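Figure 2 data, in text form.
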Amino acid sequence: MGLTTPRTGGLLALALVIALLPLAFRNNYHYDVAIHIIINAAVVVGLNLLIGYAGQISLGHAAFFGLGAYTSAILTASHGWPPLAALGAGAVGVGLLAFLIGQPILRLKGHYLAMATLGFGIIISIVLNTESALTGGPDGMVVPAFTLFGWNLYGEKSWYWVFGGLLVLVTWLALNIIDSPVGRALRGVHGSEVAAQVSGMNTSHYKVLIFVVSAIIASIAGSLAAHYAGFITPGESGFFRSIELVTMVVLGGMASTFGAILGALILTLLPQLLAGFEDYEMMIFGAILMVTMIFMPKGLLPTLLRLRRARS
């Protein structure tokens, strides 16, 4: 397989960019912005498998991110668990929850599925806000530092490499899933679920499978993000956070792994570039979503690649 294919060349290019980017950083703020881009990119690469390849909308995906973050926070802060064990417990718990709720709600289609996932996200957000004794309520809770075998992971520079490694790993996993029989089954479900069922495919199995995989990725990213920030609030699992993640996928390009990363890059940088307009952030996200769906329904990166091929 050549270096120009997404699976090899694209992944190597991503790893190279992550490795060389610190050469341009001048302070910890630059590292912090890059870390938030990478966290969002890792989550939306997983979400893109569900939305872009399987064609299943989720308006509550931030709930999985929040559940992973709070599981790590509660188990380490209140019960003294090692952070790595808490991260693993969060991933397993979120995976089981996604499996249980995925069975009924992924039988729904279109706006019914969107409303069901939205309802799930709202329930999780309400629980995190109201169970103050456990989660700290709307004020959030402090998350202990991430320690591993006595080593305390601390500072933006150290965390940058952890999250950079996570993004490369998640991207490698996504590209392998896309190129596998599972990926072909997901595209079959997206193209025509009825035709896939007629051909003998168990479409429910593949939809639930990719729902669980994307939820676990969000949970792991949430756990690590909570330890990095040292603090977590219910806002990380709210409705607007879910819309933000979906907008990143749609803007960058559905069914495009590197398009999703580009969407995360643009929409994470946007608030930094529009400092002073925080009150209009969600309005701007909504406008970007509308413009993208009208003028670039396949997303930014696939559209740019199509224009490039048309000119060559």
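Caption note: Strands lie at 141-142, 146-148, 151-153, 231-232.
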